[in-house]
């Protein structure tokens, strides 16, 4: 596959954009409580934030049903994906992951000296767990699973994944990237976090960038086995890179349950609107368990982007499995209407 999440997309002038549907952001965030807490905390900016970080970690431990020693914080989940990759692959080895999947951990694994063993998703765009297990060899250091997956927006069957992780993590550690899990139909019921509580060698990464609408504030966390987290922390400390105001905003966000529910319901409406648009055009999109939708386009990706940019709408294009695809993030209703107008002109 030539799939590469890092291919630099070219953009029109972002300040003139009418529909920003390219980074899977949440157009409704941060919650007003989070913004207020952020601003309040700026006045304490002379202090390191270990105290408030400790409180946040306790709150996360309660929410996830794990102990505080099972949590590592970072400025976004990218930080944790990349740190894990640097520590695991500095002496080589290989990482097994779905293809296509989110490439941040894989790129850093390769840059650190590791190899990538891509495993094509199944026909229904789930992770091919049997093929992943069969691909394990004596050099395999980690299995990375984005669930729900990016860019396909698909969720792998929860029971199958749970059984796979429960069994296979005795052979090789497994990293589950759950950046979009709150947006899946079952929400946290599909999370693999209970396996961390069970003591398995599993990492589960979460972020405040998506459902919490805090992509620009940079905070995320990873749950994991105490020994594995210690090994990473020895080389590169988690938590040091997060600012006090962001910690305060995350704390306030976790308490603002109604904000999260409201975001999820608005994002669900945007998905329904987009499904109808694509259904009317006879385009077979992938049903989404995230805040974005992937659909095939019968046009070169760059050509499609040039066309849609003329309407001041920004999205992503991908190519994999000899097919061009458009990935559109769910924006506000107004943004989705700009998107629909552009699609109705371009894909006639
Ligand atoms: N993981 C997945 C699957 C993503 O799609 C993203 C961002 O788009 C990230 C991780 C990184 O998010 P952040 O570093 O903002 O937490």
UniProtKB/TrEMBL annotation:
InterPro entries: Aminotransferase_I/II_large (IPR004839), HistidinolP_aminotransfase (IPR050106), PyrdxlP-dep_Trfase (IPR015424), PyrdxlP-dep_Trfase_major (IPR015421), PyrdxlP-dep_Trfase_small (IPR015422), TAT_signal (IPR006311). Gene3D superfamilies: Aspartate Aminotransferase, domain 1, Type I PLP-dependent aspartate aminotransferase-like (Major domain). It comes from Galbibacter pacificus. Belongs to the class-II pyridoxal-phosphate-dependent aminotransferase family. Histidinol-phosphate aminotransferase subfamily. Residues 23-343 form the Aminotransferase class I/classII large domain. This is Histidinol-phosphate transaminase. PANTHER family: HISTIDINOL-PHOSPHATE AMINOTRANSFERASE, HISTIDINOL-PHOSPHATE AMINOTRANSFERASE 2. Coiled coil: none annotated. Keywords: Aminotransferase, Pyridoxal phosphate, Transferase.
